[in-house]
Write a structure and sequence with these properties.
The structure is a single chain. With 235 residues, this protein is an alpha/beta fold. It has a single domain, classed as P-loop containing nucleotide triphosphate hydrolases (Rossmann fold, 3-Layer(aba) Sandwich), CATH 3.40.50.300. The protein has helices at residues 20-30, 60-68, 88-97, 107-116, 130-140, 145-159, 174-193, 199-209, 213-228, 231-234, and strands spanning 9-13, 34-36, 39-41, 55-57, 72-78, 82-87, 100-104, 121-126, 167-170. Helix 1 packs across helix 7 and helix 7 packs across helix 8. The radius of gyration is 18 Å and the shape is globular. The protein starts with 8 loop residues before the first strand and ends with a helix. The structure holds adenosine-5'-diphosphate (ADP) and guanosine-5'-monophosphate. Adenosine-5'-diphosphate binds at residues 14, 16-22, 136, 139-140, 171, 174, 177.
Length: 235
């Protein structure tokens, strides 16, 4: 019998509105054998969201029952309001199918996964600056003003956690960001194969390395400043 596949887990976190869902959707179209873990949440569906597609939308009672039944790999209270959780089922299914798995989760969930599964690859998506994040949240026009303000306030705290992640992706020009994300995913697969790299494979790894935490610190500084200097940060 062939040994069981150990899925590579890719954790992707970002302040809401940074473009994470857009990037993940494109990534899943481009990379084969990569599954998306559909989280459970107690929040209401937004806009065109469908139950079982972006999320499994459940009641608080159902969510709490799942916690008691140890069905979650991690779960967290996000925005001090709603519960979100990653079901263990998706990891098991990826293992059986020989696929890898993408988790779109917040910084609290990412910390829980890293503790349980240290080989997980973590990626933090940053907007180019606070104004752009605000603009993207408004452009999406799926949230009430009060919700947008709460998400902006939460973002300021969340981005301070960027240095706990393996890779940082600054989502400025969408096409380049999609390429970078694909490079990160493929380079991690190549690394685990442990075989000598061909020319193209070497280029993929080199491009992915540009997004490694140690190589982006200077580019991240002005982004952090734009949040620290915002009016809501001074309150
Ligand atoms: P998140 O999943 O991080 O909350 P979304 O993927 O919903 O964010 O993106 C928020 C908005 O920003 C959407 O309207 C999306 O089309 C837009 N967007 C995403 N990435 C970019 C980008 N690089 N440039 C311009 N707009 C973007
Ligand atoms: P949204 O409500 O905008 O879809 O997501 C809000 C936040 O919850 C995002 O940061 C998203 O990554 C996070 N999130 C989504 N699913 C999960 C999950 O299963 N666990 C955790 N911890 N966070 C999640």
């Amino acid at each position: 019998m062939s040994p069981a596949h150990t899925p590579i887990i890719y954790i992707i976190s970002a302040p809401s509105g940074s473009g994470k869902s857009t990037l993940v959707n494109e990534l899943l179209k481009l990379v084969p054998n990569l599954d998306f873990s559909i989280s459970y949440t107690t929040r209401d569906p937004r806009g065109s969201e469908q139950n079982g597609k972006q999320y499994h939308f459940v009641s608080r009672a159902q969510f709490e029952q799942m916690i008691r039944a140890h069905e979650f790999l991690e779960h967290a209270n996000v925005f001090e309001k709603d519960l979100y959780g990653t079901s263990r089922r998706f990891l098991k299914e990826a293992e059986q199918k020989g696929h890898d798995l993408v988790l779109d989760i917040d910084v609290q969930g990412a910390a829980q996964i890293k503790q349980k599964l240290p080989s997980a690859v973590s990626i933090f998506v940053l907007p180019p600056d606070r104004r752009t994040l605000e603009w993207r949240l408004r452009k999406r026009s799926e949230d009430a003003e009060e919700v947008i303000q709460r998400r902006l306030d939460t973002a300021s705290g969340e981005i301070e956690n960027y240095d706990k992640y393996d890779y940082i992706l600054i989502n400025d020009v969408l096409e380049s960001s999609i390429e970078s994300l694909q490079d990160i995913v493929l380079s991690e697969r190549l690394r685990r194969l442990g075989q000598p790299l061909g020319e193209e494979e070497g280029r993929i790894t080199e491009r992915a390395d540009h997004c490694r935490l140690a190589n982006v610190k200077d580019r991240v500084k002005p982004i952090l400043e734009s949040f620290r200097n915002s009016p809501s940060a001074a309150q």
